[in-house]
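Dear colleagues,

As part of the handover before I leave the project, I'm documenting each prediction I ran so the next person doesn't have to rerun anything. This entry is a single chain, and its sequence is reproduced below.
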Amino acid sequence: MAEFAAASGAGQKAGVALAATGLILTVAMPGTGALTATANSNQVASAVGTQPEIPAAASATIDFSRAAVSTTADPDSKLKQLLSAQSVGTIKQSSSKGTLGAPLDTLVTASPFGYRVNPITGGLGEFHRGQDFVAQCGTQVHAAAAGKVTFAGWHPYGGGNRIVVDHGNGLETTYNHLSSFSVQVGQTVSRGDVIALSGTTGASTGCHLHFEVMVNGDVVDPLGWL
């Protein structure tokens, strides 16, 4: 090792010495060619350049595992990490907010999640299971995240044409009152795929999208995930 350092110049001597102590460095070598044994100290300093000292504790570690990294370019990774890291039923809104994509290009709430007056019967205290978003009939409906279609057909309890997508670990989304849909049970969809067109089928008073988020079979406010 000493012979290699002597042949490689002063800059690499330091690198070899540090490597011998257990430290691993990334060294940017000059592009002007290798240093020669005749180079003086000023030439060495000019070629290597001034490098800032970066101290690190001997016990410092760096985690390069893929699970520790997420980017806005891969939003499904964030959702997968969230679902795999903990039980879906214990996820708080501070963690889930923004992990699902918008089912429509523009989201304008027509009727929120929770108790309301039934728009058809006028009855009080009806529990609205999702968010109604404004959408003219025939508006493209997008999958909120990657998953598998587990239902695509007529919903006998007011949903009309309905799609259910299973995103894994107990998380599902549903799309209701559709005028038509272009997926089938068992099909895998990606985030943002056009899966249907909005409509007013089933128990509906006009064109819109009724969007639900279900956690372990129970509906939750979609706005906590969008």
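Confidence is low (pLDDT under 50) at residues 10-21, 23-37, 63-71. Residues 2-48 form one domain.

All the best with the project,
I.
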